[in-house]
Amino acid sequence: MSEGKKVRFIITRQDGPNAAPYEETFEVPYRQNMNVISALMEIRRTPVNVKGEETAPPQWEMNCLEEVCGACSMIINGKPRQACTALVDKLEQPVRLEPMKTFPVVRDLAVDRSRMFDALKKVKAWIPIDGTYDLGPGPRMAETSRQWAYELSKCMTCGVCLEACPNVNSKSDFMGPAPLSQVRLFNAHPTGKMNKKERLHGIMGDGGLAACGNSQNCVQSCPKGIPLTTSIAALNRDSALQSFRDFFGSDHQ
Fold first, then answer.
1. Model-level pTM greater than 0.85?
2. What are the angstrom distances between the C-alpha of 90 and each of 15, 36, 105, 218?
3. Domains and CATH numbers, the chain
């Protein structure tokens, strides 16, 4: 039935960060259960557009191919998502592929997500340790806390929530939902609590919580279903309490 069938892809391309974007159309042989990544790999193998012209292979990022690394984020038919889990059979055709607009384009579908990673550095989204030697077992989390913390830990820094958020753009320094949710995750960790005040101060200034417009696009678009708006609500409370502690000179948590 599918013999000879082809799938058409319209790809927004850009030869470099300062180059003008343009569209180029390709066709690849249809295969059952084919995803967008496998189609891009087919195009890369034989980079000839529908006009019969040889062209440079499209550039994109990928790694795990199982929706864990977050590298293959792009806009597929107008929606930011992961290319590895976007099945062609479930997509309206022709399939349109565009780079995420929140981040600067490096080339074609590959973007520079430094904005998000810099925000994670700002809020110290990690657990500091004293050296790399064996410290023995750490403190245990209560099971109820561990369950919701696990949901937050699913974040793969794909950038989709930043792409979906109207408050994250070139005219705003809002860090976006993903770094904010990581603040809640690491502040809930028994060891991470030692840096709770520092992390809260990181989101209480410019580009932090106050820049969130509560559009709730993030929680609807997150590939992992992370309760981002719940984290933001909890952080609003924590930052308000921290403001009182700062005013009255109390470090009590």
1. yes
2. 30, 11, 27, 22
3. 6-111 (3.10.20.30), 114-248 (1.10.1060.10)
